Amino acid sequence: MSDTRLRITEIFLSLQGEARSSGIPTVFVRLTGCPLRCGYCDTAYAFSGGEWMSIESVLDAVAAYGVRHVCVTGGEPLAQRGCVELLRRLCDAGLQVSLETSGAVDVADVDPRVEKIMDLKTPASGESARNRYENLALLGPRDQVKFVLCDRADYEWARDRLNEHALAERCEVLFSPCHGRLNATELADWVVADRLPVRFQIQLHKYLWGDAPGH
Fold first, then answer.
1. Which of 50, 157, 207, 208 could form a disulfide with 32 if both were Cys (CB 3.0 to 4.6 A apart)?
2. Residue 97's closest CA among 87, 105, 107, 106?
């Protein structure tokens, strides 16, 4: 029995709004705290506060929802040292586990059974200097790299990173318009025109529930 504790902002059931499992009922475990301050952040309420919970309590809360998919998110979940153990225990419980991480924190110790969704920060986020490019070598075919794009300059920057690091040969690549800042149709047209080997996506939960916490 582990005595590791984590500060948890919320645990809730919703639809996965992004990435490969978009639309699937998923339990979200949102850890408190983040070292980044992206200009478009929609989860600033997770920067502080939260409730201390043991890993056993988190596992019980997740199991109570009775679904197979669970996503550990934040903030930046890996900013808490106990996150790695939580991910391992969720996998041991037979769940399909994904991790949403900024890519600014080392992912080397993340259990290989976890599907990593790494959000590389673009210039318009204000945090592109925090990207830890060494993490890219740790990604595989089950993992995904996400770019949240705010304008044409972000798009061209992401396209350059896509080519520079041969990302599409390593893992799935996601291009997403920043909700309220970049028109989705415009981004879709750019992707098609350049024939990029990426998956265009929108944030499904934004269209269903807006910025309401717990979704």
1. 50
2. 87
Instruction: Tell me the residue range of the domain where 23 lies.
Output: 5-209
- What residues have CB less than 8 Å from 110, skipping those under 6 apart? 78, 84, 87, 99, 116
* DSSP secondary structure of 48-85: S--EEEEHHHHHHHHHHH--SEEEEESS-GGGSTTHHH
- At 152, which CATH number? 3.20.20.70
What angle do helix axes 83-92 and 55-65 make, rounded to 10 degrees?
40
C-alpha neighbours within 13 Å on the C-beta side of residue 167? 27
pLDDT of residue 180: 87
Tally of domains within the chain: 1
Tell me the mean pLDDT in the region 182-204.
Answer: 96
Q: How far apart are CA 99 and CA 102, in angstroms?
A: 10
Average pLDDT, rounded, for the chain: 94
Q: Report the alpha-carbon angle 156-162-165, nearest 5.
A: 135
pLDDT band, very low/low/confident/very high, at 42 (cuts 50, 70, 90): confident
Rounded to two decimals, what is the model's pTM?
A: 0.93
Q: Please name every residue paired with 44 in a beta bridge, in sequence order, or none if there are none.
A: none
